[in-house]
Every structure is written in C-alpha cells, then in structure tokens.
Amino acid sequence: MLNVVLIHPEIPPNTGNIGRLCCAVGATLHLVKPLGFRIDDKSLKRAGLDYWEKVDVRVWSDLDEYLAGVNPDKVVLTSSHRGEIYHSVEFRLDDHILFGAETTGLPADLYERFPARAARIPVDHSKVRSLNLSTAAGIIVYEALRQIGRLPGTSG
C-alpha cells in the first residue's frame, strides 16, 4: 500500500514509533543503512512495544541498493524546507515516502534526482528547525492515506 523509507535513521525510539505507525496502517517500513542503532536495540523495540514483530520491515545495505529497486515515479521526498506543502502533493498507492536522518535530513542530491514530488511540513523556523521524525512521518502518512482512500478503520 504505502512504503515509509527511513534513510540513515539515528534515534531508535523514532524508528520504533514509525514502525508502530506502519503496523497500524499496513505500510511497509524500509530502513536504509547505515543505521544509528542495531535492529535488536532494546529502545527500538520498546518504542514499538509488542508490535515490532508485526511490522513489515525491509533493511537495505545502502541508499544505492534501495534506489536501484524503486520506481522513480513512486518516490516522494520530505522536508521542512523544500517542496510543496504536504497536502498539496498528490500521493498515490504504493508510493515510497522518504524521510532523512534526524540530524541531517535527506541528502541534497536526492532533490535533484527526484524533483517531481517533495512534501514540506511548514514549521515556524524562528522557533524550531524541524519536527520530530516520528511526528513528521505521522503527518505525511495519514495525509497520503486520506488522499488514496485507505484510512484504517473507515470505509473510505
């Protein structure tokens, strides 16, 4: 249905929370190495609670390996600085929504490589640099599900 892609995630609880989100909505979670933790990290599983085993997780050895297997038309980049406001981006079934590392975001060259769709969550940059990664993932994923008519627990 949807694919949530974490490029070089660094903080285990964020990944655990995003894993729980993916489990709740039926999305696949892609983790692109290097990771800032081990998959068996206790804090990762604690954030995902007992749901971690139910999450459809795919781990990629690096960004090149991941990108080689994805349809470029399905890639949606995310940012707090670039792109259209997230609700203006047209999300489609089977999209791959890419989120960058907590401290650095997505690599800049991805915006040149995939210029078609970038979703921006507006924030007041005079107060904060960005939202927490798991918060941002929740905002974008639920908007995508709303657009494609796949909100869980609803008829449409």
The CATH level-2 architecture is identified as 3-Layer(aba) Sandwich
How far is the first residue's CA from the last residue's CA? 14 Å
What oligomeric arrangement do these chains adopt?
A: single chain
- The tally of domains stands at 1
Strand content: 15-25%
Regions with little confidence, pLDDT below 50 for 5+ residues: none
Shape: globular
The amount of helix comes to: 25-40%
CATH class: Alpha Beta
Major sheet characteristics: 7 strands, parallel
Strand order of the largest sheet: 3-2-1-6-4-7-5
Number of helices: 5
Map the helices and strands.
Layout: E1 3-7, H1 12-25, E2 28-32, H2 42-48, E3 57-60, H3 63-68, E4 75-79, E5 84-85, E6 96-99, H4 108-113, E7 118-120, H5 133-148
Parallel strand pairs: 1-2, 1-6, 2-3, 4-6, 4-7, 5-7
Helix pairs in contact: 1-2, 1-5
Descriptive labels:
31% helix; alpha/beta; Alpha/beta knot; 156 residues
Brief characterization of the structure:
By secondary structure, the chain is α/β, with parallel strands linked by helices.
3D architecture notes:
This protein has helices spanning 12-25, 42-48, 63-68, 108-113, 133-148, and strands spanning 3-7, 28-32, 57-60, 75-79, 84-85, 96-99, 118-120. With 156 residues, the chain is an alpha/beta fold. It has one domain: Alpha/beta knot. Strands 3-2-1-6-4-7-5 form a 7-stranded parallel sheet.
